[in-house]
Amino acid sequence: MSIEVVSLAIPDVKIIKARKIGDHRGFFSETYNKKAFAEAGIDLDFVQDNHSYSSEVGTVRGLHYQAAPHAQNKLVRVLKGRILDVAVDIRRSSPTFGQWVAAEISAAEWNQILVPVGFAHGVVTLEPDTELLYKVTDYYAPSHDFGIRWNDPALGIDWPVSADAARLSAKDLAQPLFSEAVGLFE
């Protein structure tokens, strides 16, 4: 398996592109191979796969994170559609604490994003009927599940959807501001 790994402006967040082999029947792609990822410097033990579907453009999920000792690295890819994926650095000792990076992830581009431990994570759908599949390195732990308000002005995230048009869960609408967030990383 050959993969291409590119760091974003916050270098711990990475875009990964797997090789895709096509012919008259369709295509084949090995989207995850532990050995190939380790050779690229990404040596993680994934324990759970999550699959989400969003029917409408402008569906926002996040900003979510799990606190220690159940923090999660996430490897996110889009099976159908297109998203803007956002990662916010919530590591207090980091020089990029409170800063964010974003990347468009899509089925057409066949790219993935690695969102490491210490980041709040969110997505917004850019196409209808979008499906995501993401691997995580720890199991879901409700007692360690936290979030930050997706459109907190202090973060200044450039979301491609207005607050009026965004489709959010009741849970995400009630998330605290960044200044009030708990479970941040030391």
Task: Please characterize this protein's 3D structure.
- The chain is mostly beta strands and 186 residues long.
- The protein has a single domain, classed as Jelly Rolls (Sandwich), CATH 2.60.120.
- It contains two helices and 13 strands; from the N terminus they run ββββαβββββββββα.
- The protein has a six-stranded antiparallel sheet with strand order 1-2-10-7-12-5, with no helix packed on it. It has a five-stranded antiparallel sheet with strand order 9-8-11-6-13, with no helix packed on it. A two-stranded antiparallel ribbon has the order 3-4.
- Strand 3 (21-23) and strand 4 (26-28) form a beta hairpin.
- It is globular, with a radius of gyration of 16 Å.
- The model has no long low-confidence stretch (mean pLDDT 97).
- It catalyses: dTDP-4-dehydro-6-deoxy-alpha-D-glucose = dTDP-4-dehydro-beta-L-rhamnose.
- Keywords: Isomerase.
Descriptive key words:
Jelly Rolls; 40% strand; six-stranded antiparallel β-sheet; 186 residues; mainly beta; five-stranded antiparallel β-sheet; single chain; 5% helix; 2 helices
Q: What's the end-to-end separation, in Å?
A: 36 Å
Strand content: 35-45%
CATH class value: Mainly Beta
CATH homology superfamily: Jelly Rolls
Strand order of the largest sheet: 1-2-10-7-12-5
CATH fold name: Jelly Rolls
- Helical content class: under 10%
Which parts are unreliable, with pLDDT below 50 for 5 consecutive residues or more?
Answer: none
Q: DSSP helix count? A: 2
Largest sheet: 6 strands, antiparallel
Query: How many strands appear in the DSSP assignment?
Result: 13
Mean pLDDT across the residues is 97
- Coarse structural class: mainly beta
Tell me the CATH architecture: Sandwich
Instruction: Write down the overall geometry.
Output: globular
* Radius of gyration from CA coordinates: 16 Å
Total individual domains: 1
Function: Catalyzes the epimerization of the C3' and C5'positions of dTDP-6-deoxy-D-xylo-4-hexulose, forming dTDP-6-deoxy-L-lyxo-4-hexulose.
Enzyme class: isomerase
Family: Belongs to the dTDP-4-dehydrorhamnose 3,5-epimerase family.
GO cellular component, one term: cytosol
